[in-house]
Amino acid sequence: MAKIKRRKSSKLFSTPRKKTRGNKVKQMGLINAGIAVLSLLLVAFIFSFSGNQIQMGVPIEVKFPSMPDTPKLATEIYESNPVLDVQIEILNGCGTPGIAAKFSKLLRDKRVDVVRSENADHFEYEKTILIQRNENINGMKLVAKALGFNIENSEKVITSIDPNLDVDLTLIIGKDYSSIPSIKFY
Predict the structure, then answer these.
(1) Residue 152 pLDDT grade (very low, low, confident, very high; cuts 50, 70, 90)
(2) 111 near 157, Cβ under 8 Å?
(3) What is the DSSP letter of 65?
């Protein structure tokens, strides 16, 4: 029998061979290994760079001033100087700016609970009036004493019970506020 010679096929017309799954796995493994090596190099570079950036400077000593006493808690302050059970609203009836705040500070220093400090319904009050709004007589006496009012003076101290109000007393500051001794010296 005669031998049949096979002709070599030209590469022009031949179809490329399909890669097998094994080749793809090998290529992906090489790529993953390359990424891992580059990641290790990057981490080593960052570590080396950060190690070179640490500077050794001169140590600084910080000394805090010593406090004579530890600060008191709010409860300790309240227990040593409690707010009395007297609630008052202060209304500016004369129109002088800041006068209600001045009276508020004066009464708060006397341990009176100033609930509100605002303008009255108008600024034409000639006299300063302390109005009792409930049966808290002791509170009225304390505030009248702090302001230097005589509780028997019906021009300065009035009783007008109003259960709808949430205060014990109302102080309306009139244009005569400068004649009140306690506010003069405050």
Answers:
(1) confident
(2) no
(3) P
- Residue 60 inside a domain? The answer is no
What is the CATH number for 160? 3.30.70
Residue 171 falls in which region: left (phi positive, over 0), alpha (psi -120 to 50) or beta: beta
How much is the mean pLDDT over the chain? 81
Helix H, strand E, coil C: the string for 94-125 is CCCCCHHHHHHHHHHHCCCEEEEEEECCCCCC
Residue 4 located in a structural domain: no
Residues 6+ apart with CB under 8 A from 93: 120, 122, 123, 124, 125, 128, 172, 173, 174
- What's the DSSP call for residue 14? P
What 8-state DSSP symbol labels residue 8?
A: P
Count Cβ atoms within 10 A of the Cβ of residue 136 and give its class: 0-12 exposed, 13-18 middle, 19 or more buried: middle
- The predicted model scores a pTM of 0.56
Amino acid identity of 180? I
Number of domains present in the structure of the chain: 1
Q: Phi, psi at residue 161, to the nearest 5°?
A: -65, 130
